[in-house]
Amino acid sequence: MKKMQQTEVLNLTRQKLGKHPSLQSFINNHSEDVYKVGDIVVLLNTIPRLRSYKLDAQKILLRSTGPASIETVDGKRVLIGLDTTKTDVVVYHFYCVNSSNTTQVGGLVTADIKDKEKAKAVIYDIVKGIKFKVQ
Questions:
Q1: CA pair distance 83, 8, nearest whole angstrom
Q2: DSSP at 31
């Protein structure tokens, strides 16, 4: 995974996501958190959480137009939601929470629709690499 420079992000979103202004704007507004794996774009961030907030597939379903599920990847629970509203791109939202429920790593992965399975595999690789500090 390679961190993208702001000019790369702007060029990429203009070329690939020009037909999707809300997605283009979202990625451009978080350009310091954008990475690339081949042609797959990844936006990552770490978010402090309220202990009372649980990993909940129903909450992600409100944001996704496609299916959402909680999966276990390498011993970590991750919530993955698919946004199927785009005809030429696929967008996955994902959230992984530490065992004390105080920190979450989340993000989105977007790719050409033909790379849908590769995009999901990138999420699994990211989750496998997450190392939460012991609280």
A1: 24
A2: G
Residue identified by tokens 């909680």 is: 70
Nearest-angstrom CA–CA distance, 45 and 34: 9
Q: How confident is the model at residue 79 (pLDDT cuts 50, 70, 90)?
A: confident
pTM for the complete prediction? 0.80
| CB atoms closer than 10 angstroms to residue 68 | 21
How high is the pLDDT of residue 59? 56
Give the whole-angstrom CA distance, residue 57 versus residue 4. Answer: 30
Residues 6+ apart with CB under 8 A from 77: 55, 70, 71, 96, 97
Taking a C-beta distance cutoff of 8 angstroms, is the pair 49, 56 a contact?
no
Write the CA distances from 18 to 3, 13, 14, 24, 88, integer angstroms.
21, 6, 5, 7, 11
